[in-house]
């Protein structure tokens, strides 16, 4: 059945009230899915697992919207004591209902004067209305075979449109856009690139609990959080003057402002059965540089090129996610403190997300039990072709006990990071083995090396995640680190492990071998798979220690490989 807007007056004016109409997709604790209104999401948060958007980036944008509502409705929290009161109160979101009633007019998607996240009367000089492809991000430009919306989006329900409006402000692409009337930035009917939506700059990070209620509270940072600036005048978009065409350069006031930052100007075109078009232009610009004291949901990296350009130091930019790198391999960026990343008097090269600094404070001050399990969720978009299209979306998580974030007891975090180093060592050793086997057989080495590394990381990922999730179960993380090293050795270098499988697959040519020349020497040596295997196990033994004797190959104590690698004679 087509969705219809509800009449809000006797004149038949259409309305879609986001505070009472279902539009936010949710996953319940029992595994069922549905759509809820803003009011229902907060009323049922304790029974919901999480938000589920049409895309992971949409989920991130909707979580930030809910946080802006919660921060404003609860007017805080001001400190950890106030937060602890909320955590202990099952009905902590009760004030949200009255808050939404007070601001209901600004949450009407179809409102004539103040439509939600839109600009009333927005139009181009030629009164053009554009395809909904401009706001629906799961229609890849030029790639219609990867979407069910093929080849264009003709119509959206009001619920779908509301979600994509929120997403457009957060993740809209850059590029040249059609100018709208009243925007002083228009030149020749166009506005030239001003950057992606605010969240599109971020390597998004937030903390998930067991329920949506826990998730919202865990990410509800207190106003007195160190290294996070929240002005008393901080307010979300619906408590500010409605946006007109164009945009103004201004500094954000805090998290409520940033979570609802109006990076675009748009207006939906609709009839009684749904939305059929959109006008979309640029809104308020915001540079990503040095916002680490305002934006808590991303890690940050020092930018040496920006420091050179601006002639000041340090300069930080958001640290984006690498689609090819799983979240567990980047655990150091999540749990390492600033002091642990600083070399001498130099500022840290990386800063972990403020949201994790906040959770670190909660566990350090005893508001959360050390073994409390959370998921550090990472979501981000990678743009291509001058940021005019979304090429890839990253969605991953790492489950860990909050003790890893403890600001005083750093033993668990140190061993978690070191355990990733153990995996890296084993993967590199396996890559070297693949390279040496290829050289022994006289074949090209780059492909086998890359494949071996990918295979090893894939095999180690699930065991590491399981090991990390249970790290807090022990009083001695150093013993658990040894257990992990033994597990890595068995999987990669033990009998029947990845190394044995590579050697078996290398075939007779590698087993027979050939004469090779040492890379930095004058001599030659007969090089075959047997010698490559000895070097491989020696590298594992040196880096991971002695494995269980039952799993140790006969040549595990072989002399270590020379520091030089071999190469074929010219």
Task: Give an overview in words.
Residues 558-570 have low confidence and may be disordered. This protein has helices at residues 38-43, 56-74, 80-88, 95-102, 158-171, 212-218, 255-259, 304-310, 331-335, 354-364, 411-441, 446-469, 477-492, 498-512, 529-544, and strands at residues 6-7, 14-15, 24-28, 33-36, 48-51, 177-178, 190-191, 204-208, 264-271, 274-282, 300-302, 316-318, 350-351, 373-384, 389-401, 514-518, 524-527, 566-567. Helix 2 crosses helix 4, helix 11 (411-441) packs antiparallel against helix 15 and helix 14 (498-512) runs antiparallel to helix 15 (529-544). The strands form seven sheets. It has a three-stranded antiparallel β-sheet. Strands 8-14-15 form a three-stranded antiparallel β-sheet. Strands 12-11-13 form a three-stranded antiparallel β-sheet. A hairpin with a 6-residue loop joins strand 1 (6-7) and strand 2 (14-15). The longest helix has 31 residues, at 411-441. It is an alpha+beta fold. Among the domains are: 300-410, no CATH class; 412-567, Topoisomerase I, Chain A, domain 4 (Orthogonal Bundle), CATH 1.10.132.
Summarize the structure.
Helix 2 (56-74) packs across helix 5 (158-171) and helix 11 packs antiparallel against helix 15. The relative contact order is 0.09. The chain is built from 15 helices and 18 strands.
Topology diagram in text:
Elements: E1 6-7, E2 14-15, E3 24-28, E4 33-36, H1 38-43, E5 48-51, H2 56-74, H3 80-88, H4 95-102, H5 158-171, E6 177-178, E7 190-191, E8 204-208, H6 212-218, H7 255-259, E9 264-271, E10 274-282, E11 300-302, H8 304-310, E12 316-318, H9 331-335, E13 350-351, H10 354-364, E14 373-384, E15 389-401, H11 411-441, H12 446-469, H13 477-492, H14 498-512, E16 514-518, E17 524-527, H15 529-544, E18 566-567
Antiparallel strand pairs: 1-2, 3-4, 3-5, 6-7, 8-14, 9-10, 11-12, 11-13, 14-15, 16-17, 16-18
């Amino acid at each position: 059945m087509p969705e219809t807007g509800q009449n809000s007056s006797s004149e038949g004016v259409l309305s879609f009230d986001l505070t009472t109409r279902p539009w936010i997709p949710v996953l319940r604790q029992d595994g069922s899915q549905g759509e809820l209104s803003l009011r229902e999401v907060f009323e049922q948060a304790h029974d919901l697992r999480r938000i589920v958007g049409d895309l992971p980036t949409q989920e991130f944008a909707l979580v930030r919207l809910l946080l802006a509502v919660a921060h404003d409705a609860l007017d805080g929290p001001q400190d950890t004591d106030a937060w602890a009161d909320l955590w202990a109160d099952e009905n902590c979101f009760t004030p949200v209902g009255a808050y939404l009633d007070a601001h209901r007019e600004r949450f009407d998607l179809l409102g004539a004067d103040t439509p939600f996240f839109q600009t009333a009367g927005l139009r181009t000089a030629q009164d053009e209305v554009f395809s909904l492809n401009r706001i629906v991000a799961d229609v890849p430009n030029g790639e219609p075979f990867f979407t069910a919306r093929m080849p264009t989006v003709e119509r959206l329900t009001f619920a779908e449109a509301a979600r994509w409006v929120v997403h457009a402000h957060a993740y809209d692409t850059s590029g040249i856009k059609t100018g709208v009337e009243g925007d002083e930035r228009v030149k020749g009917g166009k506005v030239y690139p001003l950057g992606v939506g605010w969240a599109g700059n971020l390597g998004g990070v937030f903390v998930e609990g067991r329920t949506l209620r826990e998730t919202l509270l865990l990410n509800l940072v207190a106003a007195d959080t160190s290294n996070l600036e929240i002005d008393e005048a901080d307010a979300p978009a619906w408590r500010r003057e409605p946006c007109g065409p164009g945009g103004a350069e201004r500094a954000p006031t805090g998290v409520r402002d940033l979570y609802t930052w109006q990076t675009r100007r748009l207006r939906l075109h609709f009839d009684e059965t749904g939305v059929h078009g959109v006008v979309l232009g640029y809104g308020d610009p915001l540079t990503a540089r040095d916002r680490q004291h305002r934006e808590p949901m991303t890690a940050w990296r020092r930018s040496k090129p920006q420091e050179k350009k601006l002639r000041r130091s340090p300069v930080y930019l958001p640290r984006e996610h690498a689609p090819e790198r799983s979240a567990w391999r980047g655990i150091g960026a999540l749990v390492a403190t600033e002091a642990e990343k600083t070399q001498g008097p130099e500022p840290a090269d990386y800063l972990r997300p403020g949201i994790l600094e906040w959770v670190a404070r909660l566990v350090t001050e005893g508001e959360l039990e050390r073994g409390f399990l959370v998921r550090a969720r990472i979501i981000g978009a990678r743009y291509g072709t001058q940021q005019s299209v979304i090429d890839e979306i990253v969605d991953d998580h790492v489950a860990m006990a909050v003790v890893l974030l403890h600001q005083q007891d750093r033993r668990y975090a140190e061993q978690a990071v070191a355990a990733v180093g153990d995996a890296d060592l084993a993967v590199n050793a396996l890559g070297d083995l693949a390279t040496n086997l290829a050289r022994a057989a006289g074949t090209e080495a780059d492909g086998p090396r890359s494949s071996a590394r990918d295979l090893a990381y894939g095999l180690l990922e699930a065991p590491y995640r399981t090991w990390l999730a249970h790290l807090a179960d022990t009083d001695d993380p150093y013993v658990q680190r040894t257990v992990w090293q033994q597990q890595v050795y068995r999987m990669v270098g033990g009998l029947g492990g990845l190394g044995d499988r590579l050697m078996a697959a290398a075939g007779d040519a590698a087993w027979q071998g050939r004469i090779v020349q040492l890379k930095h020497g004058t001599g030659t040596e007969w090089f075959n798979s047997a010698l490559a295997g000895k070097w491989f196990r020696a590298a594992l033994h040196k880096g991971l220690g002695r494995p269980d004797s039952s799993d140790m190959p006969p040549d595990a104590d072989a002399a270590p490989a020379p520091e030089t690698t071999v190469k074929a004679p010219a």
